[in-house]
Amino acid sequence: MEQNSTMLGKIVEVSCTIKSALKGRNFEVTLKPYLTVEEKRLAAAADPCGCMEQYFTLNEDLKQMLESSKDSAKLDAMKRIVGMIAKGKNASELFPAVVKNVASKNIEIKKLVYVYLMRYAEEQQDLALLSISTFQRALKDPNQLIRASALRVLSSIRVPIIVPIMMLAIKEASSDLSPYVRKNAAHAIQKLYSLDPEQKEMLIEVIEKLLKDRSTLVAGSVVMAFEEVCPDRIDLIHKNYRKLCNLLVDVEEWGQVVIIHMLTRYARTQFISPWKADEVVDEYNENNFYESDEEQKEKDQKLKSTYTMDPDHRLLLRNTKPLLQSRNAAVVMAVAQLYWHLAPKSEAGIVSKSLVRLLRSNREVQYIVLQNIATMSIQRKGMFEPFLKSFYVRSTDPTMIKILKLEILTNLANEANISTLLREFQTYVKSQDKQFAAATIQAIGRCATNITEVTDTCLNGLVCLLSNRDEIVVAESVVVIKKLLQTQPAHHGEIIKHMAKLLDNITVPVARASILWLIGEYCERVPKIAPDVLRKTAKSFTNEDDLVKLQILNLSAKLYLTNSKQTKLLTQYVLNLGKYDQSYDIRDRTRFIRQLIVPNEKSGALSKYAKKIFLAQKPAPLLESPFKDRDHFQLGTLSHTLNSQAIGYLELSDWPEVAPDASVRNVDVVESAKEWTGILGKPKKEKPTEKFYSESEEEEDESTSTSSSGSESDSESEKEDKEEGSTDETSGSSSPSEESTDSDSDSKENTAKKTSRAANESDSEDIKKKAEGISKKRSTSSSSDTESSSSEESSSGSKSESDSKSDSEPGKPRSATSTKKEEKTVQDRKTPNKQDVFLLDLDDFCPVTTPVTVPTAAVLSPSLTADLEGLNLSSSSVIDVTSQVSVPTKTYELLHRMSGKGLAAHYHFSRQPGLFCDHMVPVQVTVTNTTDQKIDNIHIEGKKLPPGMRMHEFNPIECLEPGGSTTVTMGIDFCDSTQTASFQLCTKDDHFNVSIQPPVGELLLPVTMSEKDFKKEQGMLTGMNETSATIAVAPQNSTRLVIIERVMKAANLGVVSSGQDNIHRFAAKTVHSGSLMLVTVELKESSTAQLVINTEKTVIGSVLLRELKPVLSQG
Amino acid sequence: MIHSLFLINCSGDIFLEKHWNSVVSQSVCDYFFEAQEKAIDVENVPPVISTPHHYLISIYRDKIFFVSVIQTEVPPLFVIEFLHRVADTFQDYFGECSETAIKDNVVIVYELLEEMLDNGFPLATESNILKELIKPPTILRSVVNSITGSSNVGDTLPTGQLSNIPWRRAGVKYTNNEAYFDVIEEIDAIIDKSGSTVFAEIQGVIDSCIKLSGMPDLSLSFMNPRLLDDVSFHPCIRFKRWESERVLSFIPPDGNFRLISYRVSSQNLVAIPVYVKHMISFKENSSSGRFDVTIGPKQNMGKTVEGVVMTVHMPKAVLNMSLTATQGSYTFDPVTKVLTWDVGKITPQKLPNLKGIVNLQSGAPKPEENPSLNIQFKIQQLAISGLKVNRLDMYGEKYKPFKGVKYITKAGKFQVRT
């Protein structure tokens, strides 16, 4: 049965070709069934229920059905025809019958006819023309979907004659009111271009027009068309660059991929390299975003030496970052490659987590992603080191995945992790998958050469493998050992001997050849064995592989030169065998060697140097990653995967030395406004496409903008215009959340207007442009008081928003903060501008002046700062000294009133940073007069300080009334030690010896850092720099609040927000040297906790550890 | 971009082809067959193959190869991701993505492919839109269609494609408004010989089934969102809300969809719910070996571990196995050398054990390595990371929906080395 039907199939196909051949001559010919009645009956009997049996009569049947008046019959016929097309069978002779139905009223019939037309129109161009008028009519249909589908089919019919019609249709559709039709127009551009490349110029015009489109629907498709038709016309992108960046989040996922790839290329031609100035902290100061040009220039001259990232460059990086969270692997990969190729090296790391996530996906996705990671991991190990374990191999992985993972593991190997890796490799070597086991041996070899510490271990391990049962494993080991020995042959005679013994058993040619080469190369080290090996191999010479034969010849030559007495005959024998070998390679080699080594009268000068030639020091082979040379391809591309340039691959250009004019990207206000009034005015559909994310977009801007007034006002006004444009939409379904954000944005609008001093604008579209323009003109001298206060105001506004307090009375928090600000100006002046946000955060929640509220501050502020830091791009590498969270501090006695003759003094550590000098710890001394007489001229004298320590005395107290007390502040530089500072407290008449010994916790200044940075820093401070202890924690101390409070009380640490509830992190730096001090408290089960301190200052670290222990364990 | 698509079954028959541009001959697939032959195992067929004039990018799903023909440079993941989307759509429409299902519904398949790609560039890939354009087949509809001659092509034109929310269709109406969330967590782990954890992490997804009328705007919040380390979102989720407030805010698609997938931060220790005691040994020169495996519960938070299945790829030298299981049943496939032991539920009182003799091919050398054990299990009503949904709020619609959250923990790639 089965066979019968396949045979029939063949018959059918033959008859088919005959038919079409006939038709070629005259396609009006009606077809007659060629098969006899018997054959037909046979066919029917053979397969009564399949579709095959009808085939011979089918065409006639189908024709009749197509011509019938009933739709159901037509539909049936069309379905069968589509079935034929799907199977790849020829149904072209039905063309005339089918094409008639193109105007059918039934949508499904129509669709199927379209399917048919697209498939066969190219072959039957004349007849296809019959259908054109139908499409032309449909192009004018009031329904946008019908217009779109007509354009789709029209452009898919590959008939050169209709090129002008297509061109016209595309032009018309490109200014259609419906974005969906415009999207289809963009697709049609590519189709027309592939059909007739001569239309390029005209098509570029259409592309230019569509690139200006603001609809997210169109963006992806038109960029695709751009890439296909005119990828070199970078100039078309300039004006649309910022728009594309801003739309990106809302574009459908496939469009995102295309746009990101295009923008990567664009950015590489327009911006200067962020890598050169990598050591310069890449702090992006958005204040200069919209500076006027003159100022920009001024600044440029000033900052010529340092690198500042172009704001547009930053815009791209910022807007693509959220897409790392896409569910679409292609989008994630596209963003990853963008960061790889464009971001400063310090920021590229954020993509690794997302890439590792993709490894959970299908094997195909894994394959591509792993390849890209392999390339990345060669250049920047650090990016993937934290995820080392994610690349561990499972026995169920397909071999190609295993090998890629192994490749990455090898790339990531370093001194720190090599021992774990080697243990893991040991498991792999035993794998049943021998190809993988062999690859593992290669990997071990690579680790051994790269990391000298483990070379010997690896070598020993490999030698053990030589006794493995599996030949492939042994052979691979031999090859790898050969390479390893070459790097350090001095003391490995034993191994060579061992390998010589193996020669009897190994049959794999490469391995045999390797052993022979080794013995030849080091024949002087194994003088006894070498001739014997030659004797054995000479015996088996004729049966060896070519590769082995060549090495036998080499071995004999080398032995002849070093030990001709024993091996002369053998060598001659081998050379004779080689002379008559079948392979010309071997005959050649034999001739060459004979001339060189065997002295005869004709031999030239060369033979004198034969020994030098053969036994020269050979450079050791480099064991390199096969992915080494892939990095010149753009990541994520087909070319990268194939490691060869694919058709249509566009080279990523090098960064320009000098950035091209950035002003080309400035959008001309008037022109574009005019351009868009036409489209914006009419269809309501336009707006919502952008509206959906608008609210969230704004949120991002508030939070990412570390006081970026320029971009903020920009986005706000954008928001505003959306808001206004779609009020009817929102009011319909205004949810509570939306309402609240609405009011937020209103209030923010106000601030925006205030800061930019914009006049009241009514036209929604204009606001954006104007705000942009105005803020551009604004001076950015952020040091000026008015400016900074206004920017702070606006950010405080946004803060109260994120706290989801309604802004109904915005005056209140603002005035509050500003008063507080004044209090803090002393401190603020010292800290960089960027820090404003942090300071204000803390202010908002914890009034510094009242120590009682400290606990709440500790709970709320870290999480918020963390949120902000997460958003703040530039914070990653900056660690700031935070403002103080003052803690009720313990008071120490300096001088008892009994010993001070009525003068009493106490001191405490005020934890105010750097009042005197950066390295000094501020100490507040309260002096009290308990006598009934005035005490005059209290001052310090007779300082006895250990070397290095310095002290800033307080100003002498002129006089102290009886019973009065006064507080003075002094600064002591303890040099990061707990040594005592001794001095004399003097009055007019007396001298009292006093001393101050600082608790270790006071030698610190708290710093703010994100959890990520904390971990990064911690990662660098391991080993010697880490001290840890396990402590019992009193049950009442196990809440976050209490722990923070207690730790802060004991030491001047900054809280680092933590993602886990059971881990608490604190960071500080030492006052004198500024070394980091990282404290981690991890709560474990059964009320114990692990206390870890990482610091360079190990002494202080251990003292601090000792001090912190009782803090948590005491009830 | 994507020029043509061929669907090929396991025996190497091309059973469907579709061209979006000029026709590419089937012979291009010969390069694919060549690579397939070289790879031996279907899993090892390289996804990207270069031929003189084209590039072939393929995926393997449900015993079908989807081979796409590419002519110019394109991000390979773009194509791979799209092909998987196609397979997902078939799965969604026909309940399975098999050769027979595709052959039976060849017209719908063609219509779908036509809508999903235009000139090789993805057009409509959201299932909500596609379902409006082309109705999925049901038995009832096919009966009705055959009688009335109506079609499965939607006669009302879909609005979703044009709306601001492309993933949701307009005019959804339900009498019972329901929203269900399944929090499914999978433990990926490698346990070494001695029972210590080499690598473990928790990967989770939240699958949703939302049947809500109108245009509901949902926000879902967690008790402990900080557990989520790395998250990927369905496009419907407002990313910025998550960034700032750690709340999932979205207008959901209609029907089933995957809301987020996430990874739990790697610092957290992963509780491993089962332990395995194993004794597998092959004797030298005796063509037999011993096999003894016991599975027991561990750190399961008071929940029962159920649905336990163990699969072992035995070495090639194994001829047969004669074992006895104290619980469940086992099968050994002598061709693929796969041992499957379906254990079921674990009761701590009586631990399931599988013990017996392994027969080796006589004369074959003793296998180097013991096989690793792949364990599957399920724990109902538990998210092993401790993730908890706090609340679900709905805005924009007046009615009160029925809400439900379910937690399941499963074994992901859970491997015990022996």
UniProtKB/TrEMBL annotation, chain B:
Its main location: membrane. InterPro entries: Adaptor_comp_med_subunit, AP2_Mu_C_sf, AP_mu_sigma_su, Clathrin_mu, Clathrin_mu_CS, Longin-like_dom_sf, MHD. It comes from Manacus vitellinus. It is found in: Cytoplasmic vesicle membrane; Golgi apparatus. PROSITE patterns: CLAT_ADAPTOR_M_1, CLAT_ADAPTOR_M_2, MHD. It holds the Pfam family Adap_comp_sub. It comes from the Eukaryota. Signal peptide: none annotated. Keywords: Cytoplasmic vesicle, Golgi apparatus, Membrane, Protein transport, Transport. GO terms for biological process: intracellular protein transport; vesicle-mediated transport. One of its GO terms (cellular component) is Golgi apparatus. It is a peripheral membrane protein. This is AP-3 complex subunit mu-1. Residues 176-417 form the MHD domain. Belongs to the adaptor complexes medium subunit family.
